[in-house]
Every structure is written in C-alpha cells, then in structure tokens.
Amino acid sequence: MLFAPFWSQSQVELHQGKVALHNVFEPQNIQLLPSQVYRISESFPFPKGIDENVKVFATQERERLKGNKMPLSSTKRNGIQPIVSAGFEGAINAGIPNDNNMAINNDSFVVSVINSSIRVYTTSGVFKKNWNLTFFPRSSENTQPGKGLTILDRSYDPKIVFDPISNRFIIVYLEGSESPDTRIIVAFSKSSQPLDGWNVYQIEGNPIGGKLWTDYPMIAINNEDLFITVNILKDNTDWRDGFTQSIIWQVPMNRGYNGDTLFYNLWSNIKHKSKSIWSICPVQESFFPANKGLYFLSVRPGDIQNDTVFLHHISDNYNSGKAQYSYSILKTDKKYGLPPYAPQRTQGYRLQTNDARVLGAFYNNNKIQYVQTSNNPINGRSSVFHSIIQYPERESRSVSSRFISYDSLDIAYPNIVSAGNQVYGQQALITFSHTGESVFPGTSVVYFNNEGQYSNLTVARKGDGLINSFLADTIERWCDYTSIQRKYNTTNEFWLAGSFGRSNNTAGTWISKIITNDPLVSVNKNKTKDMPLAYPNPVSDELTVPFKTSVDGLISVKIHDALGKEVMTLENYQLKGNQQAIIDVRNFKSGVYFYMVSINNQLIFNGRFSKI
Q1: Taking the model in full, what pTM does it have?
Q2: Which among 203, 273, 562, 596 counts the fewest CB atoms within 10 Å?
C-alpha cells in the first residue's frame, strides 16, 4: 500500500536495543537500576488528568443543559440489536479503579485482567486459574525470573491481546510509579493454552532518563510486532501535572514466544509545535493483524472543545530495519470535549470520567473507526464520540463524527471492534460503561451497521448498587478502560469485559458473549451444512477449497489479502453435491488471506489461510 506524504518531524527520536529474558535492559547512557527492592505506596494517586477548573466547568455545563433532548436522527437508532447470549462475573477487584481488559482465543479460553489479577475462564464461565499481578512472574508454571527482576510490589494497568496468527496471548502491565522502580511487565503465553505458562519480561519504565515513570499502557499487534504506547510522567505527580511525553515501543513477538532476548524500537520526543502529544492509541487491524507497520491516534484530551486529531504511522516492522515514524493532522467535522462528572442513582454520588483521549480504534475497508469519551454540547451529558477516518493512507482523507448519547444516561470509557467482514466492512460493536440518576452503573453495547445506523442500547450487565468503595468524597473512581474482541474462528461472536455496581457498593467485573445477526455479515446455514476448511493451511503451492451442499446454483470464490484487497475471483461454476476448487497460490506473496464462497451471490462460507 502506498502512503501519501505525512507532515513528519525530524526530531522524533528512534532508540534501538534489546531486553534479555527477565533482565532489565541497559540502554546507552542510562545507568542500570540497582538490584534492590523499591517499596512503593499501595495507594493510587487521584487521577484528575486535566485542570480541575476545566472539569468543574464541564460539569456545570452539564447541569445548565439538563433537560435538553437529543434528536433521534442524530444517532439514527435503527440498526439491528446485538444479543447478549451469555455472561458471567469475573474477578472481584482489589485495585482501584476497575480497569477491565480481556481476550479470547480459538480454544475458548477467556483471559480477564483487572488492576489486581489475571484470571482464566472457559467460555462457559468455568474458573480455571488466578494469578495476582505482583506474584505472576514467579508462578511455578511461568519461566522463573532471573537476575535483575526485583520483587513486584505495586502492579497495575493490565492490558491483554490475542494473536490469532500464533494463537497466543500477550499481557502487558506496569510496576511502580516512581523513577527508582518503574517497569513494563510483558508476558507471552508459551502455547495456545494460557495454563501452560508464560515467558515474562520486564522493560525499563524510564528509558529516557531523569526522575520519570511510565503510566497507562495501550497495546496492539501486527503480523510480527507488539506495539506498546505509554505516557511518561514526572515523579511525585499525577497525570495532570506530571505529563512529559508519550512514547511507542515496537517489539518483535516471535522472540517473546520463544523465550529469546527481546529487541525493540523506541520512538520518543513525539511533539507538535514543541508540545508533546498526549496519549497515543494504537489502531488494531480488524480481522487479522496487518502485515507491516501500524497506525496510531491522539487528540487534545483535556480541552473543553477541540477538533484536532493526530494520525501517527510507523511504516514497517522491526525486522525490516526500515521502520519510520510520521504523523499528520486531521480535523473532525464535530468538536469533542472534556466530559463532565457522571451522576449515580443516589443523589450526591458521582463518578470520574477522566478525559477525552482515544480509547479504542480499528482499521478495516480503508477506514479507521475510533471512540473516545466526550461532553455532548446538546445535552451536556458524558457521551461517546464515534469517528470514522476515510482512506487514512490518502492525502484527501477526512473525519466524520457522531455522538452516541442518551437523555437519561451518562456513558464513558468506550471501546470498539469491527463486526463486519471483507465485503461489508463498516459494521462495529461499541461497548461502554453507563450510569444515571435512575440506574446503577453497568455495562452496555450498541451495534453500528453498514448504513451508518446505530442500534438501540443493549445492556450487557445492569448495576445492582453504587460504586463507592474507595474515595472519602463522592467523586468515585469508575474505571480507566473496557474491552471488546471478536472470537476469530467463529462468525459473529464477540466478547466484552466491563464493570458494574455490586449490591455492596463495590465495582464488579462482568464478561459477556455478544452475538450479532446482521444478514449482510451472517452466514446463512439454512442452505448449507458446515463446510470443511480449506487445506493445506499454511499453503505454498495449491489451496483446495472443498464444497458440500445440496443447493443448486452458481458458485463464486473470492480471495482477499489482509488489507481487504481482492486478489482472485473464480465465478459462475455450476455446483451440486461434493466438489472442490483447486487454486494456484504460488504467485501470492507470503501473508494471511481470506476466501469467501458464495452461491447465487449469497455468502455461505468463509475462512482464512496463510501463504508461506
């Protein structure tokens, strides 16, 4: 794919190095941390995140606009309703806030992470294993820590991603909140089974020197690399007063899966007009990881109103030796802004909504879709700001945005996943936390269809009580993020993790299975029996795609690459009974491909294969 010129800046710094398994790496000109244990307070700093007067103003605006009604046409709530088909309660959180992230693999294991623990379940909700974050590296099934891994005593902000190519999990979380003991813990599952153990690494949280520490990781993968973005803060400050810059780590995954020394690119000094860009969200490819490089997004998250979007790009993979960073500036057609505090059912009790940073994004069908929490200027409510960047690789790209908002609810901490396919690609599921004057805090989801219409709100888990377990005042920590992921080997099945108010006024974790029934995406199983998979997979020379159906008709087979580009079409074959197509793929480039089988122009079966 060709990329239009970006407004690049030459002062962005690239650092390269390596991380030995379980050993703190030693970048040039930075002294290795002493091998003693640093005891950090267990208390979590109160994360204001932006100027308190600005937050107060946003909350006052909410009260001033109270009673204003959102026009239904602004969100076009006519999409097909998603279905909550299963759900179970996850870990009870011992940390603050209830930061929820989860991933599901092709073997139906669900790994849920929150601020205090890592828990493994089956998709039926059967509990299998729990690790406390602080003791996880020393667990017997994990590779034992070696020289340089000091004891963890304040671990938080866990994130997890599933790699569908390798069928492995990757967990990232943080240790410490002061420069003497700030680290990024990175764990690669040794196999597709999360119970088989993990290779655990630690990466220096202060790679640029000075009295600084790492906060708030966000992660994504492409076909070869793990990308980690973090914010660098000053010692003894929160992330309102202490922010200095955001940086990007690029790490080859195979070395982590194999237990080898990790290599990395580190991108720092990312600025616009001498001002550091705050909080960088990786953009995940929608179906299977991109072959190379990655997009990232940032906004101006602490402003009352703004329309600026920074579109970052890293051009290639680590192993190419050619990766370069660039960025461009886009404008949204509507303005996002700092969200107000959100009310709870009991008067006087409110929840934190933090700032307007981008919290989730995916790339599909030449579009980037992303979500952030924002103040809605019509009703003053905390709402979801959902945006689409058309053709991000072109110079003529544009951004269109809409508010997902409700007259009786405040919603925050959204995340998004692609719910389309390679033919109809705009569909998405968007999850978020909700609260209101008449409901307890819970988790919801909406569907966004190919025509740009939203479904009505579907409650994944209603609240049973307030969230009021930590702060002495009434502006309680809510959460910092939620998550949602497709199950890669199943059509139209998605899983999410969010929070809800428990009956004892603590925050609970809820994991839900979500099904979509959009006929543009669904496979019609009434006209065909389940098909066998194409073989061999991976393939080098010829791919055999078998068909088995009693339906008469004209069959077509289409093959797309990982970017959604059609690379081959076989059409108008008369089909009846058991047959097969043999496709010569010797001229295909190495990578991931998708095949779609249609009868009489109706999709009946699809799958993927890898060309080696």
Answers
A1: 0.82
A2: 273
